[in-house]
Amino acid sequence: MISNRTSTLAAMALTVLATSLPNTATAGAWTRTFLDTYVKASADFYRATSYVDPQTGQTHDDDFFGQQYSVYGELGLVRAWPVQVSMLLPMTIGRRSFTTAQFADGGRGFATAIHPGDLRTSLQVAVLRQSLQLSVQAEVKVPLYANDDVGNKLGSYREFFPLPGDGQVDLTARLLAGASLPQGIGWIEGSVGYRARTEAFVGWDTDIAFVDGLPFEFRVGFSKGPLTGIVAIDGMKNLRSDPYTREGIAIGGGAVLVLGRGLSLETRLQGEVWANNAPQGLSFGLGLSAQAPSNRWTWRSRMKPAADGDRT
After folding, report:
1. Residues 203, 145: contact at Cβ < 8 Å?
2. How many CB atoms lie within 10 A of CB 58?
3. Pick from 282, 272, 218: nearest CA to 250
4. SS3 12
5. pLDDT tens-place string over residues 131-157
6. pLDDT, tens digit, for every residue of 154-202?
7. pLDDT tens-digit profile of 74-129?
8. Looking at the chain, which runs of residues are DSSP E strands?
9. Radius of gyration of the chain (CA)
10. How far apart are CA 164 and CA 173, in angstroms?
11. Domains within the chain, CATH numbers bracketed
């Protein structure tokens, strides 16, 4: 039997993690060659005016504002064939408004939690390097926090503090494909994968068992000079019905402006058009990226078949 405390924590975890539906940094189909490097520092923001209780299915009209500040990097490892490693290291800030009978006047309060997020590390190998680019990727997600510690010294107010994440280890395998558009006007790419939601929880004593799912994404970019415009779709579909595991689809776009000397300014805006066990909200991201050797690329080189790159 899952306690009310546990189900409330699950609801807040889903609220915070709605920020991650639009992936803020994930490698794309173009796998990097030996010592090719990409590094990005970014800030991502998410706003929702409600959250969904996964046990009752009820929508609660509490505002939520999430922030994630992260560093992401990719490095080509092998001379003979494109193989790359990537890593995302985030810091999260979640702020939730709430009302409670504990306030004599029935007023509204705010709870803010600041914690590291989920460390994501992946290994990617190119399969095909022709006009069609194919790669395979294996990713592991490991929590850098303990959900049992969030607000644990705040007594009855503890339940209002948002969690940094689901608090357990995920394993994801992906197939990625991409190609340049005719006449060098841009590129197109997508991926589909399988995410195994393990019950290896880190610092969280809970009876919840998340279900496995299929993550997918699609990107198309159009370039004119130093500017690239991007249309994006990100999603997750659970393999079976479940009252706790979030799933949804986010649609949006972004832009990349090449500044020169390997530096680029990257931005994105996405919103959930469908969500289950999670709120629907709007996210915005802004980042500064650097790549080397910078003299080989414009931005991620999707229009040069021999080069390597990924998406924003």
Report:
1. yes
2. 11
3. 272
4. helix
5. 999 999 999 999 999 988 888 877 777
6. 777 777 788 888 899 999 999 999 999 998 899 999 999 999 999 999 9
7. 999 999 999 999 999 999 999 988 776 665 556 678 889 999 999 999 999 999 99
8. 37-48, 51-52, 59-60, 64-76, 83-99, 108-116, 118-129, 132-143, 168-180, 186-201, 213-224, 227-238, 247-260, 263-276, 282-292
9. 20
10. 23
11. 4-296 (2.40.160.40)
* Contact (Cβ atoms closer than 8 angstroms) between residue 232 and residue 219: yes
Label residues 42-57 b or e (16+ Cβ within 10 Å = b).
Answer: bebbbebeebbbbeee
- Checking phi first, is residue 5 left (phi over 0); if not, alpha (psi -120 to 50) or beta? alpha
254 vs 10 pLDDT, higher one: 254
Sole residue written with tokens 């039997």: 1
For residues 160 and 153, the answer to whether their CB atoms sit within 8 Å is no
* Cα distances (angstroms) measured from residue 69 to each of 93, 156, 165, 207, 255: 9, 29, 15, 30, 19
- Closest C-alpha to 89, from 124, 45, 120: 120
